[in-house]
């Protein structure tokens, strides 16, 4: 009955499923789920409720989730922003809703206990984390719940970056981390998603999903590429900085790097095959 439904995007298991999927999937019971939000700088999303389970994505501070089950320290959730389903540590969540006002617009910033850069930071928050706060007349935004963030490091929720590739470029040198979405570590599709969403592109989490949902496929070979074109291999994705240069987080360098597309193609082909598709998102010059 569940044929055609991607379990990465639809919360169902044989023993439990979301109430809105009743009639579409088979499960022992169906639940409506409860609202919660991420209360840690970031929370790993695992494919199974185990510390050693594969990390498939990452949820960021302030991100809304629907919790369908909490058991033995794990919450089975669906992320509100991109619909991704997985298990997060239950202690990383708080119940209820979070009325965010701003997002972090730099790779990482500190939350200070006082509006003073000499104060010892309480924690740090990653790019695209959601916060609620009030701008004062000084250099800091007062955060609801306590703490202060440098005002130039946040933007209103409705602010969109002018150049999503420039956002991606700010992650150059970040370590590669399977499932990661922050400057502390991110994977190829995490880099594309978090950068594109900063500019208002509603991009799904994984590279195979992106091929169908991020821009239109270009005909032909690698000629005539432009900044912002997205290059797909089986299981990998990268961003063109210009007609010849690829930006991508990859397991070869274990970093987010910039290199000639031709070099990447030669190295990746033996393991992943030829380039499957090149997409041109809206707004990229033809």
Please outline what is shown here.
The protein has 286 residues and is mainly β. It has three domains: 17-95, Roll (SH3 type barrels), CATH 2.30.30; 102-156, SH3 type barrels; 164-280, endopeptidase fold (from Nostoc punctiforme) (Alpha-Beta Complex), CATH 3.90.1720.
Task: Note the main attributes of this structure.
286 residues; five-stranded antiparallel sheet; SH3 type barrels; six-stranded antiparallel sheet; 4 helices; globular; mainly beta; 3 domains; endopeptidase fold (from Nostoc punctiforme); 35% strand; 25 strands
SSE topology:
Blueprint: E1 17-18, E2 30-31, E3 34-38, E4 42-46, E5 55-60, E6 64-71, E7 74-79, E8 85-89, E9 93-95, E10 102-104, E11 108-111, E12 123-126, E13 130-131, E14 133-135, E15 140-143, E16 148-150, E17 154-156, H1 164-169, E18 181-182, E19 185-186, H2 188-198, H3 207-213, E20 216-217, E21 230-233, E22 236-240, E23 245-250, E24 255-260, H4 261-272, E25 277-280
Parallel strand pairs: 1-2
Antiparallel strand pairs: 3-6, 3-9, 4-5, 6-7, 7-8, 10-13, 10-17, 11-12, 14-15, 15-16, 18-19, 20-25, 21-22, 21-25, 22-23, 23-24
Structural summary, described in words:
This protein folds into three domains: 17-95, SH3 type barrels (Roll); 102-156, SH3 type barrels, CATH 2.30.30; 164-280, Alpha-Beta Complex (endopeptidase fold (from Nostoc punctiforme)). By secondary structure, it is mostly beta strands. Helix content is 13%, strand content 35%. The longest helix is centred in the last third of the chain and has 12 residues, at 261-272. 41% of the residues are buried. β18 (181-182) and β19 (185-186) form a beta hairpin. A six-stranded antiparallel sheet has the order 20-25-21-22-23-24, with helices on both faces. Strands 8-7-6-3-9 form a five-stranded antiparallel sheet, with no helix packed on it. A three-stranded antiparallel sheet has the order 13-10-17, with no helix packed on it. The protein has four helices and 25 strands.
